[in-house]
């Protein structure tokens, strides 16, 4: 599968608090899901949970052989940090 579309999200109840992330990866050519998963992350912040969602999705996309990735996130902070518009201040 060369072309994949990734949707992910992460969140915590409290900040920090119990957190999880969810990932859906779709074959962009057929539109069919090729991976769906949820991950319990333990206690962390909402931002860390968002990043863990991204990392889990990229790891799975690599295993699926994704060459072209379209990545979707609802986290303005994460998107602006990844694109270089905002600095990442925390090592977490």
Describe this structure in words.
The chain has 92 residues and is α+β, with helices and mostly antiparallel strands. 28% of the residues lie in helices and 41% in strands. It contains two helices and four strands; from the N terminus they run βββαβα. The protein has a four-stranded mixed beta sheet with strand order 3-2-1-4, covered by helices on one side. A hairpin with a 4-residue loop joins strand 1 and strand 2 (17-27). The longest helix is centred in the middle third of the chain and has 19 residues, at 46-64. It is globular and about 40 Å long.
Question: What is the tally of beta strands?
Answer: 4
Shape: globular
What's the story with the biggest beta sheet?
4 strands, mixed
Q: What strand order characterises the main sheet?
A: 3-2-1-4
Strand content: 35-45%
So what's the oligomer here?
single chain
Mean pLDDT over the residues: 95
* Helicity, as a percent range: 25-40%
Structural class assignment: alpha+beta
Count of individual helical segments: 2
String of helices and strands: EEEHEH
* Distance between the first and last residues' Cα: 31 Å
Rg (C-alpha, Å): 13 Å
- Which regions contain 5 or more consecutive residues with pLDDT less than 50? none
Helices and strands in order:
Layout: E1 3-12, E2 17-27, E3 33-44, H1 46-64, E4 68-72, H2 76-82
Parallel strand pairs: 1-4
Antiparallel strand pairs: 1-2, 2-3
Tell me briefly what this model is.
Helix content is 28%, strand content 41%.
């Amino acid at each position: 599968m060369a072309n994949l579309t990734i949707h992910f999200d992460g969140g915590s109840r409290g900040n920090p608090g119990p957190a999880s992330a969810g990932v859906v990866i779709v074959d962009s050519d057929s539109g069919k899901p090729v991976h769906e998963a949820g991950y319990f992350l333990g206690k962390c912040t909402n931002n860390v949970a968002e990043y863990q969602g991204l990392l889990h999705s990229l790891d799975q996309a690599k295993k699926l052989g994704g060459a072209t990735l379209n990545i979707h996130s609802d986290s303005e902070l994460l998107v602006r940090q990844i694109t270089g518009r905002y600095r990442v201040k925390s090592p977490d």
